[in-house]
Amino acid sequence: MPKLLFESLEKVYPNGVRAVSDFSLQVEEGEFIVLVGPSGCGKSTLLRMIAGLERITSGTLKLDGCEVNNVSPRDRDVAMVFQSYALYPHMTVAENMGISLLLRKTDKKVIAEKVRETARLLDIADLLERKPDQLSGGQRQRVALGRAIVRQPSVFLLDEPLSNLDAALRSQMRLELISLHRRLGATFIYVTHDQTEAMTMGDRIVVMDKGVIQQVGTPEELYRRPRSPFVAGFIGTPKINLLGCTVKHSGSQVFACFDGLRTPLSPDCAFPDGPALLGVRPEDLILQEGGGPDSLTARIELVEMTGGDNYIHLAAGQSRLTLKCSSRLHFAVGQDISFSIPADRVLLFPPEQS
Ligand code: ADP
User: Fold this and answer.
1) CATH number for the domain that contains residue 346
2) Of residues 125, 152, 150, 153, the one with CA closest to residue 139
3) Which atom of ligand 1 is nearest to the CA of 44?
4) How many domains does the chain have?
5) Are residues 129 and 248 in the same domain?
6) CB-based contacts of 305: which residues, under 8 Å, 6+ apart?
7) Domain boundary among 234, 262, 293
8) What residues make up the domain containing 268?
9) pTM of the model
10) Would the CB of 233 count as within 6 Å of ligand 1?
11) What is the block-wise mean pLDDT of the chain (354 residues), using blocks of 10 residues?
């Protein structure tokens, strides 16, 4: 039985905004699902519907096989961690962590033991008597997580939990959350607008836009086989190159032509002759010193050094491309360089999807 089953879930707010449309998804027990998409695409609304904090306009939500559309938040076996942490300022860390158990009239000794155990798990055992304003952002984040863990829910709902942390702490907490998920064995539904978080954390990623699912898949599936230019453009840094091109069959060969350049496509390319949108990841532009039969030439407009990698921004006529290579290679702005695009790395989309 799936842990969570969404059947054509819809949310229309009283002001007429359709925040989520026809959302259908099956989530298995113990999965780490990441909902990702640009701001306003309906991620938080969806999470709040799972938590029971937002009414479902239509469709069905099942938790462990039972419909929960009208079940109150406290009777759902879920716990939510908010972006703002939502800690009570007048309570200590221990009180904040134990509050939900206290409200359920759990024995105080049991609460204290659970809080201590969770605090050890999160490495905050020495902070239990502090108040939230005596904690750093990262420590507050752990307390918010701890408050959810203490309840031992089978589903954790996490709404951009790392967005208030600095970059270094964010990447550390990413790893900690992955390991926490493994240790707890619970189902995680994690909302973010950050594709790096989605790629590094999710067993599966749900890409949303304007309230609608664009694609569901493993990080690798979304990266290698995006179904649309939107998904291709949203997943991956630096961004995928997307160029208008013309497909041309010539004997047994097929080419994509743009700005006087042409690059071979796989001979079994199903696209008819005519306009298309070509997608190629920056690391799939392969430098060709001295050129070659299928090499392309473009002029360097900018070199972005990011540490180990260089992002080389190229101009070929009206087209702009980014090539990713080792930063040990040195290039000058204004220089022409040759590169090739392996046919099996090219993604083609219909032109009207652009
Ligand atoms: P995300 O989490 O992806 O940024 P949200 O779920 O917060 O997106 O919002 C989805 C859409 O619903 C947006 O257009 C937003 O303005 C709208 N929205 C969110 N909350 C409300 C509300 N309480 N009333 C009306 N519209 C809302």
Assistant:
1) 2.40.50.140
2) 125
3) 2
4) 2
5) no
6) 327
7) 234
8) 241-353
9) 0.92
10) no
11) 96 97 98 96 96 96 96 91 87 93 89 92 91 91 90 92 84 89 94 93 97 98 96 95 95 92 92 95 93 88 95 94 96 95 95 63
